[in-house]
Amino acid sequence: MTSATASGPAGAGHRPHRVAVLALDGLLPFELGIPHRIFGRPKDDRGRPLYEVLTCSVRPPGPVETDADFAIHVPHGPELLATADTVIVPASYELGPVYEEGVLTDELAAALAHLRPGTRLASICTGVYVLAAAGLLDGRPATTHWAQAEHLQRLFPRVRVDPDVLFVDDGDVLTSAGVAAGIDLCLHMVRRDHGTAVATDVARRTVVPPHRAGGQAQYIARPVPDPQQASTTTARAWALGRLHEPIQLRDMAAQEAMSVRTFTRRFREETGVSPGQWLTQQRVERARHLLESTDRSVDQVAREAGFGTAQSMRQHLQAALGVTPSAYRRTFRSGAEHPEAGLSR
To answer: How far is residue 159 from each of residues 135, 163, 197, 255, measured CA to CA in Å?
Structure first.
């Protein structure tokens, strides 16, 4: 996990983390707006913005065509990329040789040459083609809209394309699937920078789910559940109220009066993951919230989140977040310093 650094959101003198959004001809207005909506919301405890979101193009300031019946005026040229802490490339339907041949245009190559070493890079949907054509994804995992995944893999065989996930976080380079998965990616980046409480507040204000794990499957050619059939909503609500207790699959299925087999199939259709994966995700989120917002020891947090032991929770947080519970708390605990005594490491 990469936390806010002196050059990022928590920097000295409060310099907001600068997010540059690269607007290309043929861009999708919805996806262009996602970074502005998500990163434009977070503020520190003094009401100061944690991010500064600016839009640039590969040309001097001026109009950029969209895939709709209007153009947008972009106020910054490519030199903005040299000042960015994070650069996001939204989708475009007019990538030309980038999409057709896997090579950058001279204009785009010149723009990307402004990038500083260490800049965090992200793409939404077909924006991944730009990162791949620049050689930034060679040997790395990435994703895009499921409808483009096969083409992306053929065009860039050195990229490890995963067509089944919402987004991929590979540290300094992140990629997402199409459209609304860009929201999940941007919320994940806010969560990575500032913790779950800040990201959840942004999600609440945006009226979207606070967390969909990157490993959750894209909804590819799955049959739509019959609306007359029972869903698994009741079982999920029941489980969320009992995360601190042992929860068996048969107990969840019983809440919907289904067999385990039927319940498991229906659950995956509706959430994209198995009941066991979903429970682990919810327990990780509960643990994150408790580590950020309370002084409970790691042992207590582990019990309340349903992991049972600190060792079990440590393993799950390490797998999901790449950090130990104590390291997570030190990074993301808001407010005054809390006592470290008694924490299990």
So the answer is: 9, 12, 34, 43
Q: How far is 284 from 85, CA to CA, in rounded Å?
A: 28
Model confidence pTM above 0.85: no
Known active-site residue 125: yes
In this predicted structure, the answer to whether residue 344 has a pLDDT above a threshold of 50 is no
HSE-CB of 107 using CA atoms within 13 angstroms: 13
Give tens-digit pLDDT for 96-129: 999 999 999 999 999 999 999 999 999 999 999 9
Residue 211 above 50 pLDDT?
yes
Judged against a pLDDT cut of 70, whether residue 58 lies above it is answered with yes
Catalytically annotated residue among 122, 125, 305, 343: 125
More confident of the two residues 205 and 134: 134
Q: Are 129 and 119 in contact (CB under 8 A)?
A: no
Is residue 31 a contact partner of residue 125, using CB atoms and an 8 Å limit? yes
- Of 11, 13, 17, the closest CA to residue 119 belongs to 17
C-alpha pair distances (Å), 89 with each of 123, 137, 197, 208: 5, 14, 26, 22
Side chain identity at residue 311, one-letter code: Q
DSSP assignment of 206-231 equals HTS-S---TTSBP--SPPPPPTTS--
